[in-house]
Structures are given as C-alpha cells and as structure tokens.
Design goal:
The chain has five helices and no strands. By secondary structure, it is mostly helical. The longest helix has 30 residues. The protein folds into two domains: 72 residues; 38 residues, no CATH class. Keywords: Membrane, Transmembrane, Transmembrane helix. This is DUF4190 domain-containing protein.
Length: 149
C-alpha cells in the first residue's frame, strides 16, 4: 500500500467536478460555429470523460452530472453544426454553389477583357520598349499580346 508523503498531503487539487464543468462550459461556448465546432467536439468529449471520472471518484454528484449532461449537449450541437456546414444535413443542394462557364462563355469573357485592356497593354509595351531602347513590339495573337521579342 502506498503512503502519501507529508509534503503532498497539504497540496490542494482542484475539485474534479469543477474541472469537468469548466470543460463542459467551454465546449458549449465553442460549439456554435463551424470554425470552432471541432474544438467544441474535443472539449465536449473531454468534459464527458472528466465528468464520468469525477462521478466515479466521489465528486459532488450535481456537478458531475451537470458536466456530463452539458458536455453531451455540446457534443451534439457541435456535430450538428459541422454536419449542416458540410451540407450533409438540412436541405441537400443539387446545384453547384458556383456555376461553371461554358468554353464559349469563357472565350467571350476573355475577349471582352482583352479588348478593354488592349490600349493600356499597348502603352505599357511602348514604355517598356522605350526604356530598353528597342522598337515597340507589334501586337500579335488573339488577345493583342505578344510582349517583347
């Protein structure tokens, strides 16, 4: 049988029920949004385990039961938040969030952007050629590019 050293007798440990309850409250506070829900899951699981250990080791029953109950509630809430945010629960979306453009639409959009920026790109090429002491490069290609030679 192990004996307790006199120096260890005077040490006061925090009540196990209070630690479990603190974990449960922290889990409840962090289970409400998708970014913090994984933390809520971990804290909730730790709160359930700590509450169960506290109940087995003779902590005040009221605190231990509250810790286990609140931790279980936080676990359920965090799981629900994660499932909803992942789209697994609450209205399955059949359509994509962002619609892809067809190749024709993509070409038309790029052509419009090319036409809108052609003058600025020509000025930039001329300035670059002037700085380098070369003749301005002639535009070539579909978008009027071509750059330096």
């Amino acid at each position: 049988m192990a004996t307790v050293a006199p120096a260890e007798e005077g040490k006061r440990r925090p009540p196990r029920g209070s630690v479990a309850l603190a974990l449960a409250v922290a889990a409840l506070l962090s289970c409400w949004n998708a970014l913090a829900a994984p933390l809520g899951l971990g804290l909730g699981l730790a709160g359930v385990v700590a509450g169960a250990v506290a109940l087995r080791r003779g902590a005040p029953r009221r605190r231990g039961r509250a810790a286990v109950g609140l931790s279980a509630l936080a676990l359920a809430a965090a799981t629900g938040v994660l499932l909803v945010s992942a789209g697994r629960l609450g209205g399955g979306r059949e359509e994509p969030v962002v619609e892809a453009r067809s190749p024709a639409e993509t070409d038309a959009a790029l052509q419009g952007l090319s036409e809108r920026t052609a003058e600025a790109r020509a000025r930039a090429r001329a300035e670059l050629s002037r700085v380098e002491g070369q003749e301005p490069a002639s535009p070539r290609g579909r978008d009027g590019g071509g750059g330096r030679r």
